[in-house]
Amino acid sequence: MSFSILLFLLVVQLVASYLKEISGRGIGMDLLGNLFFYGCLRVSALSAPIAVLAAGLMTFGALGENNELAAIKSSGISLWKMIMPLIVFFMFVTAIVLADTFYAIPWTNLKFYNLIYDIKRKKPDLAIKPGYFYGDIDGYVIRVSDNDPEKRLLYDIQIYNHTLGRGNTDIIMADSARMALVDSGRVMQMILYHGTRHEEYPPENGHLERYPYGRTYFDSLYYKFRLSGFDLNRTEERSFRHQITLPYNELATTVDSIRKEQLSSVVKNIEQMSRFTKIDSQTVKEKTSLNIDAFKFEAVNLIKLEPGDSLIDCIPDSSRSQVLNTALSNARGVQGYMEFLDRSRQNQLEQLAQYEYEYYQRWALPFSIIVFLFIGVSLGSIIRKGGLGMPSLISVVFFIVYYIVITYSKKMVKEMEIPPLPAAWMPVLIMAPLAVVSFYLALNDANVTTLTGWTSYIGKGFRYLKQKLKSSKKQKQ
Fold first, then answer.
1. For residue 230, what is the DSSP state?
2. 20 to 30 A from 86, CA-CA: which of 41, 254, 271, 340?
3. CB atoms within 10 A of CB 390
């Protein structure tokens, strides 16, 4: 039940974030159903840990509230023995979620973002509103003053034909018009009544001062518009290649290839700079193959100088100015090239960090289920409140913290502030100590829901520190 509720809320939030792109585009129920289905699979791994937390809180909270937990413990069954079947079961669930993050979710991301991209490219439904200029039909701008949806009539209509790319040189004005869609909505037919067509033609024989002009009066005029772009055209899925759309094996291969490409690009760039640095290319390959950071540029003495001599003094006076200008130009060129190489390397490092984060996160996300299981069981045993009240409130707080940590860690990886490995495991590393402490308190039947319980634990902490200080003083003596 917790999983279903959280899955529904997350899917609604996900689809609502794209509401602006999909609204008003005439999407059928089949496409909306596909969008919600892909959205459910996409957020399933994210909602699983919090669902386990909420289920543990409600289940063990209800057991404690009805004194069933005390009855089980009084019969000699500890909390640890009680949750062993749950641990085994949720290890099986973790394996399922792990397979989900490895293969199912990348496939879902590919389908979801491909569908969103195609929906964005689709033009909005044909909706000519009175008093507005409508320009979604390629090459035309239409304006009407009023309309009658029941009779499908438009009043005081103006059509600006821009298909020739010469501005407002072909304008049709009519008192009224009747509109209909044919050929499965691909063509719009319009019959205009009692109007005038104004046309301005190109100059005759190149004379710019002569612009032929024509005016045509009509009682009825048939016009046809092709509605290209109003259909949903599907894009090939292979054109979408991103770290979140790659299966686990392809992602691992891509990470390895990016690392090798980065190493080879460093060697190639240093070899290209060897004509300025005078560093042997074989030395570069040997050192960079072991460790890129261990490579250091070494100064090379091109001219042997005596102490107190200047390199400029070795240049003849007649060519000194030319040599200095050439050196300055070469130095500026090298500086610009080095800045370009630095930007390229930074882009490669950012790309590698994104792929590595996605690689490590696919392992970290499922294992958070076990952590949240211990938190939910422990807090439920301590609070002893079942139902949807207190457990729901605690679950919402944990979900907000969990989501903020995931978002913030991803942001820090993108900005190259922390490495991808600790960033991917950051939610687990933050929640694991809380799971250990809460489970310890639950095993010892700690009373932390009242002020007396907290004061007793604080007193125990002070007494423990006092004993440690006394023992340390005795050892010094």
1. -
2. 41
3. 18
Q: 21-33 burial by CB neighbour count: b if 16+ within 10 A, else e? A: ebeebebeeebee
Contact present, 16 and 32 (Cβ < 8 Å): no
Whether residue 135 contacts residue 155, with contact meaning beta carbons closer than 8 Å, is answered with no
117 contact partners, CB below 8 Å, separation of at least 6: 235, 240
Q: Which residues pair with 153 in a beta bridge?
A: 148, 178
DSSP 169: -
Q: Give residue for tokens 């016009």.
A: 223
Phi, psi of 141, rounded to the nearest 5 degrees: -130, 130
pTM, two decimal places: 0.66
Residue 145 Cα distances to 131, 219, 289, angstroms: 5, 19, 73
